[in-house]
Amino acid sequence: MNERDIEKRLRGAIERTAPDGSARLLSEVTGRKGAVKMTKRRNRWLGLVAAVLALALIGGAGGLYYRQNYAVATVVSLDVNPSIELQVNRAEKVIACSGLNAEGREILSSMNGGEDLKGSRLNVAVNAIVGAIVRAGYLDSLSSAILISVEDNDQARGERLQAQLVAEVDGVLKAAANSAGVLSQNMTADRDLDRQAQENNISSGKAALINQVIALNSALDFAALSKLSVEELRDLIAIGAPAMPIGRDEALRRAREAAGLADAASLRYEVDPELDDPTPRYEVELESAGAEYDYSIHAFTGEVLASAANIPDIPQYQNPNTDRLLTAQEAFNAAAERFHADYPELAGYNIFDIDTEYRAANNTYEVDFDVAGNDFEYIIDAATGEVVGGHTDYRAPQPDTREPTPSAPDTPPTQPTQPTQPVQPVQPDTPADIGEAAAKAAALQKAGIADADSVTWIKCQRDWEDGCYDLEFECGSTVYECEVRCADGAVTDYSSEPCDDLSHHHGDGQRDGGDQASSGDIGPDAAAQAALTHAGLTAADVRGLAVERDWEGGRLVYEVEFRSGVMEYEYKIDAATASVLEHEAEIDD
Amino acid sequence: MDQEELSGPAAVSDSQELERLIQSTARGDTAALSELYRRTKGAVYALALSMTGSAFEAEELCHDAYLRVWDCAGSYRPKGSPMAWILTVTKNLCLMSLRRRRRRGELSEEEWDAIPASSDVSAEDRAALQDALAALEPQSRQIVLLHAVSGLKHREIAKLLGLPLGTVLSKYKRAIEKLKTILEGA
Q1: Residues B151, B93: one domain?
Q2: Which of A20, A48, A342, A531 is the most buried (most CB within 10 A)?
Q3: Of B67, B129, B177, the CB nearest to A9
């Protein structure tokens, strides 16, 4: 049995057992076509919206009631937690726009408090407002939702506007790759509802939603409910409104208190309600001084259900050439600063999936993140904070609009470049092909390597999917990746980064296999001892001690894990020197 | 043995055709979504399986991934790598799911039980593969599934998982050797 046989057997088994969910998928997306887009759990909401609508119609009116003597034909409200109301005339132009709560007013602050939207067409104004809400991060959570309420005594016009606005908001969210749910309702005027809305500084659409909650549990207080977001109200209805949730602010307060960050001056946080889960709760993420904390707070009792912390230390390794190392947070800040300078067109997008890894061998941080579906990587000098390398697969919409991430003058020849044109896929049967030798020559030329003999290792592979040669090679202390178009030899992608020893790339079986400690290998016992010593523990203090030998980035390392008390420890130990390369300790849930 | 030689479904999928399907999906074409699902389901499912270790969860995440593709197809920019985009969407959903599990304290010791019983796979073959994969540490298992089933290149796996290429290659080699030993002894 060879490698190919094993792969084939695995592939066959997984593919034959993979469930066919196409019918379910199509059923769900067909229900979402052209209107409200929901994930499966949000589909429950469709019925709830209908119920709210019925309630409003039975009641008879809405926020329009007090305005129908003026030129106002329609009142449109947008609720997330920011609540914003637009008054619209028969020509579908905005007459007035106001924030109904502090968050709503904050959103409108960049539009002169809503004054700038006066005279705009309704769809243009809604587009601007929802875009601002997205940029402010109110719809970042997968389960978040925006409620569009259209109040119009002309039911046909109301329905038409509702459909138009749902499509408009859907378009804004899609453009931002945002998956928040869009809920909508169409109502006619109701004096009582409007009074409730005015008294509590919310929209009449949200007031209708709150009345639906109170219909499930009359003990709940309207004013308290008005402080909740649309997402919380939706989830509360879904679970039968058994009690009053503590709310985001209280959940945040409790998490800060539990983390000892009640008085922290600089704090980033995110509170995500999960009221419709089996254990209703708020998920709170805190970040302060490079440390991250996760808390689960019970939605009704405020009890801390679970917690985790990731408190990175400055690595113990000290480069003899420097007396200072950046923290991971500082490295990320340096990368983010360069990113914002290089790609101003992406300023409106959030940075996701941040991964900062310290490379002791080069005294650098490798900072990776995702923006608008594109991967970005920056190599940061841990001593100076300078960007010394980088790579991205992002292609600018126009050619020649950006400079490549430059390399520092004292670093290996890093020349990551942006292709000026998107890579055009080439069909596998394309006759033109420069051949491997020419591809290698093009790659070396790009890297500025004149002497091919100085290349210690090179691998060239034709990629039939992209119509390119993928090359990886090593020269001196730098490893390069390069993509060369088969048809004309153009370099379509290129990156380089400093490395220590990548000799295992050459297929050095001696290094990849073997369990015996060899020369330069301290062995698993010494590795475990190094980790225990660093943690200030002895073998008698810990349980679940596990040591694994591994090659990583050309270096033999030991990964050591153990638990002690409520803490879980993970270490990476250099097998040659017993120095601690990485370590992490967190509360063992 | 050339480890970069591909035979997985992603490798044989035509990028241009996948891009066309995504563009049609963005216009609300459910037939295009259905075809996209048929062509890429195996790779997406294998990725979710490799990250969660649970057949049930992988099925749900696979479903959610295609809903996300449906919602966000309009924002996809053709770059010649539609499969990478779909897998990135899937990976992000998996990471969110894992974070939620971690917060709930649901992550226990790794229990690999991810090849469901099926009339299409013999009980012996399923048990053998199940045991063999269970013997791998989670990251090696993920690398093997991503290469063998999702059809990703080692370089793409390194990028997807944020690992050095050398680590991916060495883990893959050792995992295949281990699988070979177990399966031949089974």
Answers
A1: no
A2: A531
A3: B129
Q: Which residues between 107 and 136 in chain B have a beta carbon less than 8 angstroms from any beta carbon of chain A? A: 107, 115-118, 120-121, 125-126, 129, 133
Helices assigned H by DSSP within B53-164: 55-72, 82-103, 123-134, 138-148, 154-161
Task: Return the pLDDT at B100.
Answer: 67
- One domain for residues B11 and B67: yes
Name the domain boundary from B74, B107, B140.
B107
Confidence of residue A301 (pLDDT cuts 50, 70, 90): very high
Q: Are residues B49 and B89 in the same domain?
A: yes
Phi then psi for residue A116, to 5 deg, are: -65, -20
The partner residue sitting opposite A461, judged by closest CB among B4, B33, B171, is B4
A176/B46 touch (CB, cutoff 8 Å), yes or no? no
CATH code, domain carrying B81: 1.10.1740.10
Compute the nearest-CA separation of B70 from chain A (Å).
Answer: 7
CATH of the domain at B142: 1.10.10.10
Q: Which of B104, B152, B178, B184 is the best substitution to test chain A (most A C-beta atoms within 10 A)?
A: B104
Are residues B17 and B96 both part of a single domain? yes
Query: Which of residues B107, B138, B165 is at a domain's end?
Result: B107
Which residues of chain A lie closer than 8 angstroms to B77, CB-CB? 373, 395
- The predicted-structure confidence for B47-96, as pLDDT tens digits, reads as follows 888 888 777 788 888 998 998 888 888 877 776 678 888 888 888 888 77
Q: Which residues pair with A417 in a beta bridge?
A: A494
Check whether residue B79 and residue B154 sit in a common domain: no
Do A59 and A193 meet the contact criterion of CB atoms below 8 Å apart? yes
Residue A470 in contact with residue A463, Cβ under 8 Å? yes
Tell me if B112 is assigned to some domain: no
Domain that holds residue B153: 121-186
Q: How many domains does chain B have?
A: 2
Give contacts of B 2-41 with A, CB under 8 A. 3-4, 7-9, 11, 13, 15-16, 28, 30, 33-34, 37-38, 41
Look at residues A296, A362, A344, A424 and name the one whose alpha carbon lies nearest to residue A553: A362
CB contact under 8 A, A481 and B184: no
What is the per-residue DSSP string for A118-160?
Answer: TTSBHHHHHHHHHHHHHHTTTT-STT-EEEEEEEESSHHHHHH
Are A554 and B166 within 8 A, CB to CB?
yes
Residue of A37, A352, A393 lying closest to B71 (CB–CB) = A37
Contacts of B125 in chain A (CB under 8 A): 9, 13
Query: Which chain A residues are within 8 Å of B86, Cβ to Cβ?
Result: none
Best of B170, B181, B184 to disrupt the A interface by mutation (most A CBs within 10 Å)?
Answer: B170
The reply to whether residue B74 touches residue A174, judged by beta carbons under 8 angstroms, is: yes
How crowded is the C-beta side of A232, counted as CA atoms within 13 Å? 27
Residues B88 and B131 in one domain: no
Note whether residue B1 is domain-resident: no
Q: What is the mean pLDDT of residues A145-163?
A: 86
Residue B154 and residue B93 share a domain: no
> pLDDT tens digits for A379-411?
888 888 888 888 877 776 544 333 444 333 333
* Residue A324 tokens, joined: 């200072």
Q: How many other C-beta atoms can be found within 10 angstroms of the C-beta atom of residue A393?
A: 19
Helix A22-32 vs helix B55-72: angle between axes, to the nearest 10 degrees? 40
Q: Closest to A30 (Cβ–Cβ): which among B30, B62, B71?
A: B30
Instruction: Tell me how far apart the alpha carbons of residues A212 and A367 are, in angstroms, rounded to a whole number.
Output: 47
Tell me which residue in B30, B79, B120 faces A17 most closely, judged by beta carbons.
B120
pTM of the model: 0.37
What does the angle CA A468 – CA A474 – CA A475 come to, to the nearest 5 degrees? 125
Instruction: Identify whether B116 is part of a domain.
Output: no
- Inside any domain, residue B26: yes
